[in-house]
Design a protein that fits this description.
single chain
Length: about 260
């Protein structure tokens, strides 16, 4: 039975490359045409493949519907939270998760610093979109025309002397972030708070969320915080892998 399931599932990536006829499927699986036909008929009955008029098979609409439904029901916060907790346990600093929704970037999860001096933030609260590291990552992933249109509409409050002053500077920063794949806010929103952030990507490679580590200068310097960037990026990659289905979830810790 497991061999049958394995063969049936092997058909799907083949058809993802384009329509194939019965002979091509049989050759790829290394089975007789009658075996390949039985597998294709079963997949066809479940809507996973579709037989065209020219007797070639392609992926079926049901498969795409299931994928869309699964994506809509994925909760990036639920998947990311254990990773955020482990990152916080390792470094001790405040860890955030943020998403881009309706022209705002919002914190949707937070693990508080273990240090008595910490930054103020709240789940559900919009971030300072022109300076926050998580916002830079989420907006840098937008198509260029959308980035430009958004940049022209934004206000650019000078929270500190390091704040982004205008649209041209913001677009330049987004281009830099897009190229390097990570972002920082080094005193741009609050003079005493620094932040490093990394993107979380879906199966299509697009940024679906961003996570960050933030700390005040009195706890750790900006240079010291930047040494955590590889750890932050590895954590974001682990969340991306689990969210996109490329890697399995880590086993639960024993109670």
């Amino acid at each position: 039975m497991s061999q049958t399931v394995d063969r049936a599932l092997s058909i799907l990536p083949l058809l993802a490359e384009g329509p194939a006829d019965l002979g091509q499927v049989a050759d790829r699986l290394g089975v007789h045409k009658s075996t390949a036909l039985r597998l294709l008929r079963t997949l066809h009955e479940h809507g996973m493949v579709y037989r065209q008029a020219d007797q070639h098979y392609r992926l079926g609409a049901r498969l795409f519907a299931l994928a869309q439904e699964a994506m809509e029901n994925l909760d990036v916060r639920e998947i990311a939270h254990p990773h955020l907790v482990r990152l916080n346990e390792t470094c001790g600093h405040t860890v955030h998760l943020a998403v881009h929704e309706e022209n705002e970037v919002l914190y949707i999860d937070k693990v508080e610093s273990r240090y008595p001096v910490r930054m103020y933030s709240r789940i559900g609260k919009p971030v300072a979109i022109t300076v926050a590291a998580v916002a830079k990552l989420l907006l840098a992933d937008l198509p260029e025309h959308e980035r430009r249109a958004l940049a022209e509409k934004l206000d650019y409050p000078m929270y500190t002397s390091r704040s982004t002053p205008h649209a041209a500077a913001f677009l330049q920063e987004l281009a830099k972030v897009r190229e390097q794949g990570w972002a920082t806010d080094l005193g741009g929103h609050e003079e005493s708070i620094n932040c490093v952030a990394a993107p979380i990507r879906g199966a299509d490679g697009k940024v679906v969320a961003a996570m960050s580590v933030s700390a005040p200068n009195v706890v750790v310097t900006a240079d010291e915080l930047l040494t955590l960037l590889p750890l932050v990026r590895r954590t974001a990659d682990a969340v991306s892998g689990e969210y996109s289905g490329r890697t399995p979830a880590a086993p639960a810790e024993p109670q």
